[in-house]
Amino acid sequence: RGVPTPCRPGAATNIIFGLALGYKSVVLPVFILAGIIFGSHRLAGMYGISLAALGMLATLATCLTIDVYGPVCDNAGGIAE
After folding, report:
1. What is the CA radius of gyration of the chain?
2. Is 62 within 8 Å of 50 (Cβ atoms)?
């Protein structure tokens, strides 16, 4: 609801406000990841941090597949039409 008001003066305030909203949306995930890393270090030292990192990287293949599959389907749909 508060987006149109700061965007009225011009494009620069629109860009700055958009960046601020984007940064605001990642505050909670950053604190959660920091908590996971701190907890894994307290429980198992550097080995715990490496396990936490591998656990986070385990979803990488799924995320990349989803990112790549969308444009491929869009192109195939365009060719089929």
Report:
1. 20
2. no
- Cα–Cα distances (Å) from 53 to 62, 65, 70, in that order, read 16, 20, 27
Residue 1 to residue 6: CA distance in whole angstroms: 11
Residue with tokens 């990192």: 53
**Other Cβ atoms within 10 Å of 17 Cβ, number:** 16
Q: Say if residue 23 is exposed, middle or buried (CB neighbours under 10 Å; 0-12, 13-18, 19+).
A: exposed
Summarised one tens digit per residue, pLDDT across range 2-54 is 666 767 777 787 788 888 888 888 899 889 989 988 998 999 999 988 888 88
Token digits of residue 15: 């860009």
Is residue 3 within 8 Å of 17, Cβ to Cβ? yes
Torsion of CA 4, 5, 7, 13, to 10 degrees: -140
